[in-house]
């Protein structure tokens, strides 16, 4: 199977992988459609993110130098690209009760042929309504950000 990985700044490649066994609370999804992250991921992909070499200090609300021996925030070669996926459940863990093999779902995950995701009390994993478009589903995350901007700006009609 293949997944999309940033192998170097501004370089993406399809890389072979093997799935691990799922846990009792997880499902495995065969991905049919996916989308990259619209903003944050692009900055990371271009190696322009301060998170690569700095830590965000929550108390000071600013970036501070990362200790020299600390791992980098983004490791090219391991950095999987992607944000949203739509697919079909092909395997369910024993504790999963809200989903079944064959269910069409959407959620957050990387661009890969399969995704293993928590399926117990996970509001971010959603069943696809009958007849709904995968195009709408992969816009779920960007739409949330847009709505947050409208809310935060206190826009009223």
Compact overview of the structure:
15% of the residues lie in helices and 34% in strands.
Give the CATH topology: Quinone Oxidoreductase, Chain A, domain 1
Helix segment tally: 3
> Compute the gyration radius: what is it?
18 Å
Instruction: State the major sheet.
Output: 5 strands, antiparallel
Query: What is the correct CATH architecture?
Result: Alpha-Beta Complex
Q: Helix share of residues?
A: 10-25%
Poorly predicted tracts of residues: none
**Domains counted in the coordinates: how many?**
1
How does the helix and strand content classify structurally? alpha+beta
Strand content: 25-35%
Overall geometry comes to: globular
- Strand order of the biggest β-sheet: 9-3-7-8-10
CATH class: Alpha Beta
Protein name: Alcohol dehydrogenase
InterPro entries: GroES-like_sf
